[in-house]
Amino acid sequence: MHAHQRMISPLAARAIEADDGLKLIGVAKTFAAGQEVFGEGDTAVYAFKVASGAARAVRLLADGRRQIVEFYLPGDVFGIELGQIRRMTVEAVGDAVLVVARRTTLTKDAERLWRHAFAALVRAENHLLTLGRRSASERLASFLTDLAARIGADGVVELPMSRQDIADHLGLTIETVSRTLTQLQGQGVVEARGCRSVRLTHPAALAELCE
Amino acid sequence: MHAHQRMISPLAARAIEADDGLKLIGVAKTFAAGQEVFGEGDTAVYAFKVASGAARAVRLLADGRRQIVEFYLPGDVFGIELGQIRRMTVEAVGDAVLVVARRTTLTKDAERLWRHAFAALVRAENHLLTLGRRSASERLASFLTDLAARIGADGVVELPMSRQDIADHLGLTIETVSRTLTQLQGQGVVEARGCRSVRLTHPAALAELCE
DNA sequence: CGACAGGTTGAGCCTAGTCAATGAATGTGG
DNA sequence: CCACATTCATTGACTAGGCTCAACCTGTCG
C-alpha cells in the first residue's frame, strides 16, 4: 500500500463530516485500484463522498481517446445527478474508500448538495480555460498548484494518479506530461521524489507559470 | 439588423416563459453588440434570460488569451451564482434582449434554477471532452451539431457570433476555424451562405465527424 | 534477482499557430 | 449613389508545440 492511500476503517467512516457541512451518512465501501464505481449509462442511485484515496470521472470517445473530467479527492462529493442516468464513468484511482448514500435520502440536504454541484461547475469552467488556452507547461503548473491547494502538505503533493491519468485530465500525452515535468524541475520550481511525489519548491513561480 | 437578431418589444418580453418551466418575470433590457452584461469580480445581483440575440461568457488570461466558456442562446438562463461575486464576464453577442430578474426574488424557484445550473454543468463537462481530446474538425463538427440542435431551423444555422468568438470557444484560432469550415464544405457536409449562415447538408455525416 | 508495468528520453512528423497578404462585407460621408 | 475606410473572413507560406513511434530506464513485487 502506498503512503498516499491511507486506509481508514470502514466503521470509522460511517458518518463522515468534512468542513463542507454535508453530513453524508452511509456505508463506507472500499474500491480496488481501477475498480468502477459506476458506469456511463447506469441508473443513478447513490451519491458518494471520498473518505480516502481518489476517484476519476472519465469520458471516452469511440476510438478510445479518454478525457478525465475531474479527480475526486478526500472530502469531495460526487454522483449527484438531476436525471436518472449516469453521464460518465467513475473509477477508483488506486485503492479508495467511499462513503455511499442513497440519493433519495439526501433530499433534505438539497441546499448542501446544490453547493457541491455548483463547486463542480466552477471547477469545470475553470478547467475549460486550461484546456482551451493554456500550453503544456501552464497546464501542469495549474494542475500542481490546484492539487497542492487540495491535498498538499507542506509544499509536497503525493500524486494519487498515474501519468496517463494526468495526461487524460490535461488533454496531453504521457510523454508531454513527463517531459514538461522534467522541464519544470530544470527551472527549479518543482522537485520530484519518485514519480508519485512532487515537492513545490517555488510555489509562487509555479503560480506565475499558470499565466 | 440581421435576420438572426429578431428584436422583440420590451413589453412583450415582460414575462417570458420557455419550455424550461422557469417563469422569469422581470424587465426586458436591450444590450448593444459587445456590451457588457456584467464583469468578472462584480457583485452578483441579477439573473438573466435571453429573449433574443445571444451572449457569451468570457474568461481572460493576463496576456489576453480568451476562452468563451459558454454561449447563451434564446431561452437560456444565466447569472445564477452561489456566491456574491461574478466568476466571469458576460457580454452581448450582436444586439440582444435579456429579461432581468433579481436573484433574491427567484428563491421560490430554487428547483428550476437548480436545473439550469445543472444544465450548465452538463454542457461544461461535455465541452471539456471537446477541448481536451478532439481535433479542429471534430470541434467544428461538434459545435455546429450542437448549435443546430439549439437554434437550427430546417438544417440551417444562423451564427450569432464572429469567427473570433467561435475560435475562442473551441480553443482554436480564427484561421483554423476558417480553414476547417472551408474543408467541411469541401467534404460536402456543410454549405456556407455568407459567413454567418451555415446549412448542414449532411447532418448525419457531421455527427460522425464528432467521433 | 528477474519480470513487468510505468515512466523517461530521443528523433522525426504533423496539426494547428503565426505572420502576412488578399478578399468580402459593412458603414460613412461627400 | 459611389468612393473610401474599416472591420471581418479567407487563403498562403512558414514555424513550432505537442504527438507518434521507439528505445531505454526505474521502481515495485513476486
Order of helices and strands of chain A: EEEEEEEEHHEHHEEH
Low-confidence stretches of chain A: 1-16
Q: Radius of gyration of chain A in whole Å, from Cα?
A: 17 Å
User: How can the largest sheet of chain A be summarized?
Assistant: 6 strands, antiparallel
* Overall helicity of chain A: 25-40%
Portion in strands of chain A: 25-35%
Number-wise, the strands of chain A total: 11
- The average pLDDT value of chain A, as a whole number, equals 89
Our measurement of the CA-to-CA distance between the termini of chain A, rounded to an integer number of angstroms, reads: 37 Å
Which pair of chains has the greatest number of interface residues, and how are they split between the two chains? Answer: A-B, 34 and 34 residues
Broad shape of chain A: globular
Structural class of chain A: alpha+beta
Oligomer: homodimer
